[in-house]
Amino acid sequence: MARLLRVLGGWRSYCSKRQQERVSDDFVETLKAVVGEPNVSIAAAVREQHGHDESMHRCSPPDAVVWPQNVEQVSQLAALCYDHSIPIIPFGTGTGMEGGVNAIRGGICFNLTRMDRVLELNADDFSVTVEPGVTHKALNSYLRDSGLWFPVDPGADASLCGMAATGASGTNAVRYGTMLENVINLEVVLANGKILYTSGQGRRFRKSSAGYNLTGLFVGSEGTLGLITTATLRLHGIPEATVAAVCPFPSIQAAVDSTVQILQSGVQVARIEFLDDVMMDACNKYSGLTNAVAPTLFLEFHGSNQGLREQLQRAEEITQQNGSSHFTWSKELEERKQLWAARHNAWYATLALRPGCKGYSTDVCVPISRLPEIIVETKEDLKASGLTGTIVGHVGDGNFHCILVFNTEDADEHRRVMEFGKRLGRKALAMNGTCTGEHGIGLGKRQLLKEEIGPEAMETMRQIKAVLDPKNLMNPGKVL
Questions:
Q1: Per-residue DSSP letters for 144-176?
Q2: What is the mean predicted confidence (pLDDT) over 395-407?
Q3: DSSP H or E run through 453
Q4: How far is CA 227 from CA 25, 197, 231, 438, in A?
């Protein structure tokens, strides 16, 4: 500690106003004193790598990147930044879609990927506690022989604490829920370095009515309230049998109507994904599939062998009633892996439609009853706008994505992409939906959030932010 105080003696104030200064060399030495020299970088290439995610938002690099090894180091680093009013930007795998990691006011990027331990598995309680560097694929590999799995799967191999911070979901949400339903407890380092346990230290109960739901407050907070340093997650039993199915349709309306009817019929579908004809064509070319180029549903069913037969029969009947004549299914693991790998590679398949162009992905979520209407209208708007794009989504919970590819040098095309995204968000709001089902607000949807929740709710969010982060240092400029 004495060394830290000596180093800090020459530190000059950090300016986050118009003429922002870089952090001083002395402060960088302070960071190294906490985590060790190999775990701090101010190299331009490293800072640029940490200044953007998969979104189209302009890169905004931090002033330095640190790799803490444990929660004590995270706490100490946060306290130092707090004392000197330096912004803190959490970083996981950088797979976000709304500029959530962009350091628009500079500051220190906390890369938490080197905290990558599975801390505690409680198989009998169906729970596991992980550090922020553990990804969902790594966790399921760890759980392979336990008979359990973690089903929330956003597609990219995202970090689990990052998934909690962004409220991620994915293809299994219709059956198993989103991160909100699958996080039991969080360890969070607040802006001032204090450590908070949202459900009490070490607790892993299935339900509680004890006080405010602090866990739910931090799930989806996008790093604006604190740094999530461990997450206790709910696990699920691996199903006895799994069957995947593919079903093309004569129209978008028929495919989405089938989705709604399958859900209304009580069929316990685990995944039900929609791909429009452009998306299906792109997946065929990129992932080597041979499916019909038509509006298509990818489905998956989990359960007992007897139960699956009944579910498949009912789902096939519904699709046939909506004009489909090719309901094909498979229990083979490799075939199922290929199908879902193609679905998860939808982003890259769409980018391949126009090599050299930039991608923009936006998502909305509406009540299931409005899903056919909004997808048909969105397809028409996409064509009328003259844009290249695909529609794909987790339609089982009313959530879908539009992935657009455009020439960043073409100002008119860029404008049309932005206007399309805003229209889609407002169309979802007009149907009593939300401007984002899983991507989050980040930089790009702050105005839509204001329109969605109203001034009173926005003011309440600002008040919560002010209590937990009075200096506005935690990922500033995002959400609010």
A1: TTTTEE-----SS--BHHHHHHHT---TTHHHH
A2: 94
A3: helix 446-468
A4: 25, 12, 11, 19
For residues 148 and 356, give the distance between their C-alpha atoms in angstroms, rounded to a whole number. 42
Helix axes 305-321, 252-264, angle to 10 degrees: 140
For helices 371-384 and 411-430, give the axis angle rounded to 10 degrees.
Answer: 160
For 312-360, write each residue's pLDDT tens digit. Answer: 999 999 999 999 988 999 999 999 999 999 999 999 999 999 999 999 9
Side-chain-side CA neighbours of residue 313 (13 Å): 6
Residue 104's nearest CA partner among 166, 162, 61 is 61
pTM: 0.91
Q: How far is CA 104 from CA 5, 59, 107, 393, in A?
A: 29, 8, 9, 30
Helices (H), 235-304: 252-264, 277-287
Kind plus residue range of the DSSP H or E element containing 215 = helix 214-218
- The mean pLDDT value of the chain amounts to 93
Question: Tokens standing for 432?
Answer: 């009593």
